[in-house]
Prior knowledge:
The protein is of the alpha+beta class. Helix content is 20%, strand content 42%. The strands form three sheets. A four-stranded antiparallel β-sheet has the order 1-2-3-4, with no helix packed on it. Strands 5-6-7-8 form a four-stranded antiparallel β-sheet. The longest helix has 27 residues, at 3-29.
Amino acid sequence: MDKHLSKLLILFVVVVLGVIGIFAVKNRDQKPKNLPELLAAPITTPSPSSSNVTKIGSPDGQKTLEMLEKKDGAETTYTVSVSGEDGVANVVFSKTYDSGWSVSIPYNTFSPDNKYFFLKVNGPSTVSYIVVNSTGAVVSRDNQTIEIVGRFEAKETNYKITDVTGWAAPTLMVINTNKNDGGLGPSFWFDLSDTSFIPLSTRFN
């Protein structure tokens, strides 16, 4: 190879390396066009959710009550369904409560004829009891559900409910009370047929 050809080859290599260097510096100073969009994309964190199912059967085995407790963030939805011996479940109650509230099923929830059941609702500073028709129909006087404690306090100002213990008859519920000024109060019947409270001479414990 003569000296003239060698010089041309060296010049060609230098030019190529220079062009590559220029493009490398230029591309280094440029930001990808989609980078701002990637940085601006929101980061989403799914809200904590969970579910729990509680079941309880009637004493005669003909009805089954199932409560689905579904938590979504600070709220919890309680959905209650009742099924018969055929296994077909019908939703008869559903309500969403804020944090600090909970719903439970008392052990003796079903009335003797399985027509009604009741739920216990615990709040931050109060407890209430709700009566529901197991078919989803009205309970009494066009009321879809009946809350017991509020009705009692409106009629019996000297006592406060401490517990709803269960059923004395298909439409009679047994309620225990304390005196507002201290000490044990009498037991009452709560009659679903006319939503009245009947004081009893014997206290049920």
